[in-house]
Automatic annotation (TrEMBL):
Location of the protein in the cell: Cell membrane; Cytoplasm
Organism (species): Paeniglutamicibacter sulfureus
Transmembrane segments: 6-27
Name this polypeptide is given: Signal recognition particle receptor FtsY
Catalytic reactions on record: GTP + H2O = GDP + phosphate + H(+)
Region called Disordered, residue ranges: 35-62
Its membrane topology: Peripheral membrane protein
């Protein structure tokens, strides 16, 4: 009897210890800020006071995650301090995302992969079949030069290796496509803080391609990698853009520097965001910019100015050009003009879930000599994946 009593007491004690431990980890949240950090990184922090050595007199504000009007409906009040606590999302891990989102990609792109496999597996591949292969590649926006290169390589291999065995045809096509997508390009995307300043990323592109959404998704990726991030809402042109960005930040506990003045100087907001990032010793500052058509000279000049003003404070480590995969050749023209103005270092190709034109990856990389680093595969918060040549080709073919 007393043994049973002892056993019960021990069990109750173990359950209590586990319960206290779990509660501790739940309230602890993610990584504590480092060093002399003074900004509103946690829900209860006060907002920092910005100094005024900005290039403009309109000092943008830093919006702490809890200060925006659009707090999620699931907010709870912490009874002990009487403040609203915004529950912070836990983003999906980044590793293997492309493989996990593969179904989305292959659904819209199997015309390309499966179509090619079917054509190449025919008993006899005559000139008509080669023409069809060429047409399939061109329709997938691969571009003329890569298409001709691929067809030549396949012709050669079919001559030597034959085309009867489906597995061999699959492997041959896989190898040649991977070569075209170029696995040797550096696509690393988890940015690293410098010894004395944050890594600065600028995001550019034409209207509606998905810049703000992509920054929101990237913030989640970086938070999942335990990085401290600040967002800069230098899209002062579209009224709702700053709020949209801040809402994305809120969801993962990342603050946003923005201006409440409509049409404020975007370079000034970008400058303040970088300055706040330096002062608060964050790892990464991401600057959203307004959508602009590549043929509007004034707006393109403004983009150059934003970069130059940021560079008074810190180097811009990465300029990501966001392109909508569904826009085909027009995306190529945009890429060219943007890279002339701001030295694009990486491409984010969005909306790949809505197009059968996956070949645009190859065409853009060829045109700019810049790698596709990330791909957008849906509107969901975690529908952004690091780009990987082999995983991409596998998704097209399997
Ligand atoms: N299907 C799909 N939709 C996407 C993807 N990325 C963004 N979108 C959608 O594209 C639309 C435009 O996205 P925004 O992020 O507002 O675009 P933006 O480039 O910031 O727009 P501007 O500020 O007006 O230039 C939104 O409805 C997004 O949900 C993607 O990968 N797939």
């Amino acid at each position: 009897m007393s043994e049973q009593l002892n056993l019960i007491i021990v069990l109750v004690a173990v359950v209590a210890v586990i319960g206290i431990g779990a509660a501790f980890f739940l309230v602890r949240g993610r990584k504590a800020p480092k060093g002399t950090y003074t900004g509103p990184r946690d829900a209860n922090d006060p907002a920092p006071t910005l100094t005024t050595d900005a290039p403009s007199t309109e000092a943008p504000e830093v919006v702490a995650p809890t200060e925006t009007a659009e707090a999620p409906a699931t907010d709870v009040v912490d009874e002990t301090v009487g403040k609203v606590v915004v529950p912070v999302d836990v983003p999906e891990p980044v590793q293997g995302r492309l493989a996990r989102l593969r179904a989305r990609l292959s659904k819209s792109n199997n015309v390309l992969g499966k179509g090619l496999l079917a054509l190449l597996s025919q008993d006899k591949i005559d000139e008509d079949v080669w023409d069809e292969i060429e047409e399939t590649l061109l329709l997938a926006d691969l571009g003329t030069e890569p298409t001709l290169e691929l067809v030549d390589a396949l012709r050669e291999r079919v001559k030597v290796e034959g085309s009867r065995d489906p597995q061999r045809v699959h492997d041959m096509l896989r190898e040649e496509l991977i070569k075209l997508v170029d696995p040797s390009m550096d696509r690393s995307f988890i940015p690293v803080r410098h010894a004395d300043r944050p890594n600065v990323i600028m995001v550019v592109g034409v209207n509606g391609v998905g810049k703000t959404t992509t920054i929101g998704k990237m913030a989640r990726v970086l938070v999942a990698e335990n990085k401290d991030v600040i967002l800069g809402a230098a899209d002062t042109f579209r009224a709702a853009a700053a709020e949209q960005l801040a809402t994305w930040g809120d969801r993962v506990g990342v603050p946003t520097v923005k201006s409440d003045v409509d049409g404020a100087d975007p370079a000034s907001v970008a400058f303040e965001a970088v300055k706040a990032g330096i002062e608060q010793e964050v790892d990464i500052v991401m600057i959203d910019t307004a959508g602009r058509l590549q043929n509007k000279v004034g707006l393109m000049d403004e983009l150059g100015k934003i970069k130059r003003v940021i560079e008074k404070k810190a180097t811009v480590d990465e300029v990501l050009l966001v392109l909508d995969a569904t826009t085909g050749q027009n995306g190529l023209n945009q890429a060219k003009v943007f890279s002339e103005v701001v030295n694009v270092t990486g491409i984010v190709l969005t909306k790949l879930d809505g197009t059968a034109k996956g070949g645009i990856v190859v065409a853009i990389q060829r045109q700019l000599g810049v790698p596709v680093k990330l791909v957008g595969l849906g509107e969901g918060p975690d529908d952004l994946a690091p780009f990987d040549a082999a995983a991409f080709v596998d998704a097209l073919l399997d």
